[in-house]
Amino acid sequence: MSSIRFLKLSPTVLTALVAGDLDAASTAAGHPLSHYLVEESWLWEIRLDDISRDPEAADWIARAAVAEPEGIVVGHGGFHGPPDGEGVVEVAYSVDPAHRRRGHAKAMLAALLARADEDPRVTAVRASIRPDNAGSRAVIAGFGFRKVGEQWDPEDGLEDVWLRPAA
Description:
The protein is built from six helices and seven strands. The longest helix is centred in the middle third of the chain and has 14 residues, at 104-117. It has helices at 11-18, 22-29, 35-39, 41-53, 104-117, 134-140, and strands at residues 3-8, 63-68, 72-79, 88-95, 124-129, 146-153, 157-165. It is an alpha+beta fold.
């Protein structure tokens, strides 16, 4: 499995990504970013709004996933926000299609779970996955998640809800 390092994306970087300015985003991040991050501008708009409402959210969301030792951005990952009132964080990650099927998603998840486990406020990590998304179900297998229910997402439709206690 590859090793993943997460690079926090500041509001300046996110703003440049939303504007489609990869060069400015890379300069502000201090690391070459990828066109895939520009393609995800819809997400960065949401994350900018999240950070404006709750500055602490910046420590949990909007991170570029850098594969090591290559040092290349292979996607992004983080959480939907800081721990909720019950100490639960929801994991989110996406691998650039050009870098899929190389173990990056599992490496991202492992790094994100380690991040969650190091924060004493986190009691559990949640994952929401469409029932027909075999790839995502395979990624969480072996990480201690168990299905705890279902929910309806306005964009993705029916999702299975998975939970893993914090270590």
